[in-house]
Amino acid sequence: MRIASLVPHATELLFALGLGDQVVAVTHECDHPPEAARLPRLTADVLPKASSAAEIDRAVRERTLAGGAIYELNERALRDCKPDLLVTQALCPVCAVSYEQVSTVARRLPHPPQVIALDPKTLGETIGDIETVAAATGRRDAGAELVRATADRIDAVRLAVRGARRRRVLAIEWLDPVFTAGHWTPQMIELAGGIDVLGLPGEPSQQPAWEELAIHRPEVVILMPCGYDAQRALQEGEAHADRIRKLGAERVVAVNASAYFSRPGPRLIDGLELLAHILHPDLAPSTQAELIELEL
Prior knowledge:
Distance between the termini: 52 Å
Structural class: alpha/beta
Shape: globular
Order of helices and strands: EHEEHEHEHEHHEEHEHEHHEHHE
CATH architecture of the largest domain: 3-Layer(aba) Sandwich
């Protein structure tokens, strides 16, 4: 089977299922595992180059309000790779090429491929995606094993923090303007022994005013700007240090959202283990996932 992935978390899932040798093309953002970055690219970012979070947000808003796309799909490259299966997403038009665009292009191909759209909003639904992709690719046994391994790791975190005092957590997904994390992140915080003071499981990110955030008295602030690594998240935190300081939190940490929180793929479980370590370092062992403490 020849598989083309049009969303990074699908690429990660395909490789986790042992299908890497069948993936023939990916997106320009697919950087994990490393061998995925060497495959032909089917997409490109059409937004103007922007240096700040505010500029990126403004460009995305202007383009989406005008009905324009923020990613370009290379139809010629897609045609050349002759996929039997296209794996895309329908959750977020800001995260990848839209499902409507993918479906339209797929129908124009000489041999239209099967199209699967992943649309997870909760941690449980991300696990369901494992079964969906495994069934479509004939990898049911590998899918079942990955589901079991994921469930075991979730149970280990739950048991590790059982009975611990729950820390009040504010997860910030963007800083200018400020957005709080939604969808699967609030559930991950709860499983890790925290209380998400603003996020709602399964619901989209919220956009409160900075002035509202301190009202919720967070003890721990986690900076996880969508698509950024820990070092870039640190830079964003330092740029907004005065505002973050006013939240009155005991700790502020920057994490690699691109790897462990933004993408609803297999590495969300690494993110869960990282959250448990941040909130309860005496109960949850340290992980390989990077975190950076902010000194404010």
